[in-house]
Amino acid sequence: SSSWTPRGNYIESNRDDCTVSLIYAVHLKKSGSVFFEYQYIDNNIFFEFFIQNDQCKEMESTADKWVKLTDNGEWGSHSVTLKSGSNILYWRTTGILMGSKVVKPVLVKNITIEGVAYTSECFACKPGTFSDKPGASGCQVCPRDTYSEKGAKECTKCKEEMYYAEEGSSACTERPPCTSKDFFQIHTPCDKEGKTQIMYKWIEPKICREDLPGALTLPPSGERQDCPPCNPGFYNNASSSCTPCPPGT
């Protein structure tokens, strides 16, 4: 296979005559080092390790980029110093096929890089979120009808009679006047007299105000109307619902 392949706790190089690279890019806050363990027992495969900067220029620290062979079954180790800034690490193998002989792959494990600093500062929670515990790994979303600005420890409640806020809001919004789009109607099941009642309900959560100029209020519920006729193939047998017609009718 012309690739590096994971094999449990190590990775394995190619076994063919292709040139294959394992590449890892890291940005160091300070100078450091890279260390890895490896098995390299077959000189019919070339094994190089070298480092480039972000301008693709090879670093002086890997002037001797050829990795030494190891004894059969033994793990060797290799370490190189790294400069601060961008470092692009290359593990490169090229097999040399000699007739039907199978090349033994290079194995690499325990790659360790030093000099990668942890986050040196905490990041403020963005507007609409908060964090109330020290050492938190993330921020929580402000619940409905609350808001927060950047870096909040808690969310502030909106004045609910005049304002509302969706989850994760950075500010409260004025409640608009209610319109016909803010409520809906339903019909109760038909009674024995063939009547249904119209009931009106607000869409939840209700965000509109009924006390503003031009606002609609919820229409009164309870008006009785004739039930609509049953669909073809159904009939009303004096119950509250339509029933399928029996066979032969």
Notes on the protein architecture:
The protein has strands at about 5, 10, 20-30, 30-40, 45-50, 75-80, 85-95, 105-115, 130, 140, 145, 155, 165, 175, 185, 195-200, 225, 235, 240-245. The chain is mainly β. The chain has three domains: about 5-115, Jelly Rolls; about 120-175; about 180-245, no CATH class. Strand 18 and strand 19 (about 240-245) form a beta hairpin. The radius of gyration is 36 Å and the shape is elongated. InterPro entries: Elapor1-like_3rd, Elapor1/2, Growth_fac_rcpt_cys_sf. This is K132L protein. It holds the Pfam family GBD_ELAPOR1-like_3rd. It comes from Pycnonotus jocosus (Red-whiskered bulbul).
Structure summarized in a few sentences:
The protein is an all-beta fold and 249 residues long. The protein has strands at 5-7, 10-12, 19-28, 32-39, 45-52, 76-82, 85-95, 107-114, 129-130, 140-141, 146-147, 156-157, 163-164, 173-174, 183-187, 195-202, 223-226, 234-236, 242-244.
Characteristic terms for this protein:
mainly beta; 249 residues; three-stranded antiparallel sheet; single chain; five-stranded antiparallel sheet; Jelly Rolls; 19 strands
Q: Radius of gyration over alpha carbons?
A: 36 Å
Total domain count: 3
Distance from first to last alpha carbon: 73 Å
SSE succession: EEEEEEEEEEEEEEEEEEE
Number of strands: 19
Estimated structural class: mainly beta
Helix content: under 10%
**Highest CATH level, the class of the largest domain:** Mainly Beta
The outline comes out as elongated
The total count of helices amounts to 0
Strand portion, in percent?
35-45%
Oligomer state equals: single chain
Mean pLDDT across the residues is 89
Main sheet summary:
5 strands, antiparallel
Examine the coordinates and then state which fold CATH places here, giving the name of the CATH topology of the largest domain: Jelly Rolls
From the 3D coordinates, which CATH architecture of the largest domain would you assign?
Sandwich
Q: Unreliable runs, pLDDT <50, ≥5 residues? A: none
Order of neighbouring strands in the sheet with most strands: 1-2-8-4-6
Domain Elapor1-like galactose binding: 2-117
InterPro entries: Elapor1-like_3rd (IPR056609), Elapor1/2 (IPR039181), Growth_fac_rcpt_cys_sf (IPR009030)
Pfam families: GBD_ELAPOR1-like_3rd
GO biological process, one term: positive regulation of BMP signaling pathway
